[in-house]
Amino acid sequence: MKYSCVQLNDLPDEILMIILKNLTNAEVLYSLLGVNKRLNNIAVDPVFTNNLSLVMSTWDGLVYSLPDPILDRFCACSK
């Protein structure tokens, strides 16, 4: 059997959207913003940005702000 290597950027947008919907919206933005123009466009799709929470909660109900490096990256990419 011959194996091939498929990179994230090789996948069609529709497949990427299916995969990325398994992440939180903040994870999508943090992971994709600033990588390249195509992934930026996917990251800012309303599917991921219409309902964006900049806090996280723990299993016991405590609520925390996202870590500073994540917030800093959002701010840097939104300029």
Structural commentary:
By secondary structure, this protein is mostly helical. The protein has one domain (8-77). It is built from five helices and two strands. The radius of gyration is 15 Å and the shape is globular. The termini are far apart. The relative contact order is 0.15.
**Tell me, what's the shape?**
globular
Query: How would a crystallographer describe the biggest sheet?
Result: 2 strands, antiparallel
Query: What's the order of the H and E elements?
Result: HHHHEEH
Terminal residue distance:
48 Å
Q: Specify the helix fraction band.
A: 40-55%
Number of domains: 1
Q: Nearest-angstrom radius of gyration?
A: 15 Å
Class by helix and strand content?
mainly alpha
Q: What portion of the residues fall into strands of 2 or more residues?
A: 5-15%
pLDDT averaged over residues: 85
| Residue runs with pLDDT of under 50 for 5 or more positions | none
User: How many helices?
Assistant: 5
Number of strands: 2
Instruction: Identify the strand order in the major beta sheet.
Output: 1-2
